[in-house]
Design brief:
Elements lengths: L2 E8 L6 H4 L10 H5 L10 H4 L5 E3 L12 H8 L4 E4 L4 H10 L3 E3 L11 E5 L4 E4 L5 E3 L5 H9 L2 H13 L2
Parallel strand pairs: 1-2, 2-3, 3-4
Antiparallel strand pairs: 1-5, 5-6, 6-7
Helix pairs in contact: 4-5, 6-7
Length: 168
């Protein structure tokens, strides 16, 4: 997975984990259950409108609030392929990679509009807005974290490592 292409959904600043997945739905950690309610308090119809491969572009401090892992699980299960924002809450940043959800810090994220299509190139650290042809540069994700994403998250990565080491 060297490139990610998808349609953009915009959300504002300080989107906290309660807006991503409301506490009333945390009685289950089943990804399919969580996906039905993703972003419901920010946009009640979002789970019905989002398509596999879509990308959220948000403002500063995406994923602030509680440290629940349910937030990146819900986003990934809803089919979102990536999140782009100028900054992320630190614990959300780590949880997203642990769950296999790629996130990208881009200072100019506000320039990307809803329904634009973007392509994220993980190798060269660029995001191309295919609608406007503008190219943005971001700091590439370190190779280890790219491997976490490619294997589907930390649990899958650990299982792969254990299977490889079993033969040694």
């Amino acid at each position: 997975m060297n490139k990610i292409t998808g349609k953009v959904w915009n959300f504002g600043e300080n989107i906290d984990t309660d807006l991503i997945i409301a506490a009333r739905y945390l009685n289950s950690s089943d990804p399919e259950h969580l996906a039905k309610y993703v972003m419901e308090d920010a946009d009640p119809e979002f789970a019905k409108k989002v398509s596999k491969g879509d990308i959220i572009v948000a403002g500063e401090n995406f994923g602030c609030g509680s440290s629940r892992e349910h937030a990146p699980i819900a986003l990934k299960a809803a089919g979102l392929s990536a999140i782009i924002a100028p900054t992320f809450a630190r614990i959300f940043y780590r949880n997203a990679f642990n769950m296999g959800l790629p996130i990208f810090e881009l200072e100019e994220a506000s320039e990307i509009k809803e329904t634009d299509e973007v392509t994220i190139n993980l190798e060269d650290g660029t995001i191309t807005n295919n609608t406007t042809s503008k190219i943005y540069k971001f700091t590439p994700i370190p190779p280890f974290m790219q491997e976490l994403i490619a294997t589907g998250g930390l649990m899958e990565f650990a299982a792969k490592e254990a299977a490889q080491n079993k033969g040694n």
